[in-house]
Design goal:
Elements lengths: L18 E3 L12 E3 L10 H14 L8 E5 L3 H13 L2 E7 L4 H9 L3 E5 L11 H11 L3 E2 L2
Parallel strand pairs: 3-4, 3-6, 4-5
Antiparallel strand pairs: 1-2
Length: about 150
């Protein structure tokens, strides 16, 4: 195995995760069985790949401009991927989350610079206090914001 590549930013590592042969687990199976090790992404999730692609598509379409704000309803992993991208690309991130999410997820997103708003789960999605409605409200009030 050669030396690892030097990347310009952490975003260059997203999706470039290894494939690993499952030799022992699949020894009785004909052919080759491989696993894509997505937890090697910087946010430890396949959602990093999706979050970066979603943001890059929004940039190409002019839906968000430099210095803008990303708004996301999240249970954690997509928000984490967006937080990583926001840091590198210079965006603000607002995450709305249900009150059923762990304090660790909230603390991690906050430590990564996101503003996190915890919303009740015992309300209908259309209710003004639901995490979806709160995110929509932020999107309507904050100029140059992107709400996927």
């Amino acid at each position: 195995m050669g030396a690892p590549a030097i990347c310009n930013t952490i975003l260059d590592t997203i999706g470039n995760t290894p494939m690993v042969r499952l030799n022992r687990i699949a020894e009785d199976i004909p052919g080759e069985v491989l696993a894509k090790v997505e937890y090697f992404n910087p946010g430890h999730s396949t959602k990093d790949r999706m979050a970066l692609q979603m943001l890059e598509n929004a940039e190409k379409q002019g839906l968000i401009k430099p210095g803008g704000t990303i708004i996301e309803c999240t249970s954690g992993n997509t928000g984490m991927g967006l937080a990583i991208a926001a840091i590198v690309k210079g965006y603000q991130l607002i995450c709305t989350m249900s009150d059923k999410q762990s304090q660790e997820k909230i603390d991690t997103l906050t430590a990564m610079g996101a503003k996190v708003y915890v919303c009740p789960t015992d309300v209908a999605p259309e209710h003004k206090d639901s995490y979806y409605s709160v995110a929509k409200k932020f999107n309507s009030e904050i100029p140059n914001s992107f709400f996927p």
